[in-house]
Amino acid sequence: MRKILTLLALLCLSVGGAYVYALYWYIPDKIKSRFAEGLQGLGFKLVAFESVSASGGSVTFNKISLDPKSFSGVEGLEIRYSPERFLFQGGQADSLRIRKLHLTGEISPSLDVTLAGRTNDLSFLKSFKDIPAPAVIVEGATLELLHPELGGLKLEFEGQIRKKSGKRNEVEILGRVKSTQKKLSFESTLTGTVFPDGSIKISAKAEPLQLDIEDLKMSRSSGTFNLEIPAGKGLILTAEIIAAAINWRSIPLDDTKISLERKDNILSLKAEGKTIGAEAIDFTASLKTNEQEQTIKEVGLRPQNLILLRDFLAKNTLLSPEQALPSLLPRDVPLSVTFSFADTAKDGVLNGQWAIENPEHTSGVR
Q: Contact, 79 vs 64, CB < 8 A?
C-alpha cells in the first residue's frame, strides 16, 4: 500500500512539475518563437517588439513595430493560454487580445489602399482560418489613410475576429467602425466572413453619416456598404447612401440617393435627387474614374421650363453673365439639360459642355 501511495505521489509531482514547466517556460518560449512568423503570414515582413512579459497563462508583447519606421504598430498583444489546449490542440491559445493597433497608409482616388510595412498580396487572407485561438479581440484600433484630394482620413475600429461556429475553417468578423473628423463623421456596425480560399465578404451600415469637403457637403445621411474580395481577384465595393441634405459644387439637394460601385479598378457613382427651393428640379449626376484615374463627370437637370432653370442657376451662382442660355429655346416646355464639370471650375461656375434638349430642339452651349 505504501509503495502505491509513493508511486501516486511521484506521479502527481511529475505531472505537476510538467504542468508548471509547460505553463511558465515551455509554452511561453514556443509562443515567442512563433510570434514574428505569425505576423509575417499576415503580410508584415519586418516585425519587431520592444519587450515581452510572461506570467502563468499569458504572454504579452509590448510596443510592436510593423514597419521599419514604426508608422504602423501595436501597443500590446496579449496571448492567454492553458497548457491543456496548447499542448493537445495543436498550439491553440484561449484568446488573443490586440490593444491599440495603429495602421497608416494611402488610398487612391479609385479606392486602392496600401499600408505601411505591408505587402499588397491578398493571399494572407487564407491564413485567417489558422488563427491560433477561438477569438481575437481588437481594442482601440485606428487606421489613418492619406488621400490625394481629401487629405488625412482616420477610422477607429473595435471588435473581434472569431472562428465561425458550425462552419469549418470560416472566420467571422464583428465590430464597430467610426470616424469623428469634421470632414468625415459616421458610426457603423460591421459584419463579415473570411472563407477558407481567402475570399472575404463584409457588410456595414453607417448612420448618421456626414461629409464636409471642398466640393461636397452631406448631412443627415445613412448608408449600407458591401465589400467583397474574391479569391485571387480585386476588390469589389458597392454602396447605397440616402442623404437628406447635400450641397455639391454649389447645387443644393435634398432626398438624394447615391449609388457607388468600385470594380475592376474603375470607380462609378450615380446620384438622383431634387434641388432645394421652389424650383424642385429633378437632378441626376454620374462620375466615373477609369484605370488611368481620369475622371468623367456628367450632371443632368430636368426643369419644368427654362425660366425655372435660369432662376435656379442664377440664384446659386451657377450661371455667369457670359454663359447666356440659347435665346431660341422655348421658355415654357419641359427640358432636359446635361452638362459637365471641368476640374478647373472656380466659384461654383459651370465650365464645360452643355447640352439642352426638348422634344423639338437640341442645342449645345460651351
A: no
Can you give the pTM of this predicted structure? 0.77
20 beta partners: none
Give one DSSP letter per residue of 243-293, joined into a string.
Answer: EEEEEETTEEEEEEEEEEEEETTEEEEEEEEEESSTT--EEEEEEEE-TT-
AA letter at 289: T
Tell me the DSSP string of 86-99.
Answer: HHHTTS--SEEEEE
**Tens digits of per-residue pLDDT, 189-199?**
999 999 988 88
Can you tell me the distance from the alpha carbon of 245 to that of 339, in angstroms, rounded to the nearest whole number? 22
Length of the chain: 366
* 316: helix, strand or coil: coil
Please tell me the distance from the alpha carbon of residue 30 to that of residue 81, in angstroms, as a whole number: 12
d(CA 23, CA 28): 7
Q: Angle CA(305)–CA(309)–CA(312) in degrees, nearest 5?
A: 140
